[in-house]
Amino acid sequence: GAGVSQSPSNKVTEKGKDVELRCDPISGHTALYWYRQRLGQGLEFLIYFQGNSAPDKSGLPSDRFSAERTGESVSTLTIQRTQQEDSAVYLCASSLVVLAGGYEQYFGPGTRLTVT
Amino acid sequence: AQTVTQSQPEMSVQEAETVTLSCTYDTSESDYYLFWYKQPPSRQMILVIRQEAYKQQNATENRFSVNFQKAAKSFSLKISDSQLGDAAMYFCAYRPRYGNKLVFGAGTILRVKS
């Protein structure tokens, strides 16, 4: 079946502009995650959605970052008033949630954001 | 807080040879998962192998195997019979059993020479 998809693949924006990044999870996956990967570094957790529960926003770096998800479908990550340090690859992942804790996260190809 | 450390920024291996990538982690949890992910230039994160902490037996997946030392909090990845397609960035990652986010190391670039 289809994997996790993200759009756009690449985004170049001017400092101070707002951007929206989109993630389409695997159908049936109730959990959705956003991560940020700065150049040459590992992934940093940003936010987690699970069904209709309140999202875990503990990884969002500032109030310029927000994310939404309606039900178990598409999610959008919004960055307001972008700064150069926001330049990174933003990766989305989705998973089933199994009570015993054994589930895998499947990643999308990411959106490369460049703030000029 | 949990942390994952990969001390080798870059490794090289000759095609058909064996290479080991190192990973250490720090946690106060006793039940957790450890993962190795591969990220080729396409950026697609691919799960290579996973280990459940309560299982003493080391996980294996074809040419990939791990050496899991729970007391030492060490989780290395061995790639046997290296192939050109193995060239990528490799990330070690940790998640508590009932946690919802992965904690990643900084990654190791693996180069495979023909």
Walkthrough of the structure:
The complex is a heterodimer of chains A (116) and B (114). Chain A has strands at 5-7, 10-13, 19-24, 31-37, 43-50, 65-69, 75-79, 88-95, 106-107, 111-115. With 116 residues, chain A is an all-beta fold. In chain A, the strands form two sheets. In chain A, strands 2, 4, 5, 8, 9 and 10 form a six-stranded mixed β-sheet that branches. In chain A, β4 (31-37) and β5 (43-50) form a beta hairpin. Chain A is globular, with a radius of gyration of 14 Å. In chain B, strands 2, 5, 6, 10, 11 and 12 form a six-stranded mixed β-sheet that branches. Chain B is globular and about 40 Å long. The A-B interface holds A 31, 33, 35, 40-45, 48, 50, 56, 59, 89, 91, 93, 101-102, 104-105, 107-110, 112 and B 4, 6, 33, 42-45, 47, 50, 52, 91, 93, 97-98, 100-107.
Lay out the secondary structure.
The complex is a heterodimer of chains A (116) and B (114).
Chain A: E1 5-7, E2 10-13, E3 19-24, E4 31-37, E5 43-50, E6 65-69, E7 75-79, E8 88-95, E9 106-107, E10 111-115
Parallel strand pairs in A: 2-10
Antiparallel strand pairs in A: 1-3, 3-7, 4-5, 4-8, 6-7, 8-9, 8-10
Chain B: E1 3-5, E2 10-14, E3 19-21, E4 24-26, E5 32-39, E6 46-52, E7 60-61, E8 64-69, E9 74-79, E10 88-96, E11 103-104, E12 108-113
Keywords:
heterodimer; A: mainly beta; 4-stranded antiparallel sheet; 0% helix; B: 114 residues; mainly beta; globular
Give a short overview.
The complex is a heterodimer of chains A (116) and B (114). Chain A is mainly beta.
Percent helix of chain B, as a range, is under 10%
Approximate strand percentage of chain B: over 45%
Number of strands of chain A: 10
Helix content of chain A: under 10%
Radius of gyration of chain A: 14 Å
What is the N-to-C order of secondary-structure elements of chain B (H for helix, E for strand)? EEEEEEEEEEEE
**What is the end-to-end distance of chain A?**
37 Å
Largest sheet of chain B: 6 strands, mixed
**Quaternary state of the chains:** heterodimer
Question: What is the string of SSEs of chain A from the N terminus onward?
Answer: EEEEEEEEEE
**Global structural class of chain B:** mainly beta
Number of strands of chain B: 12
Rg of chain B to the nearest angstrom?
14 Å
Molecular shape of chain A: globular
Write down the overall mean pLDDT of chain A: 92
| Unreliable segments of 5+ consecutive residues of chain B | none
Largest interface: A-B, 25 and 22 residues
What count of helical segments of chain A does DSSP give?
0
Helical stretch tally of chain B: 0
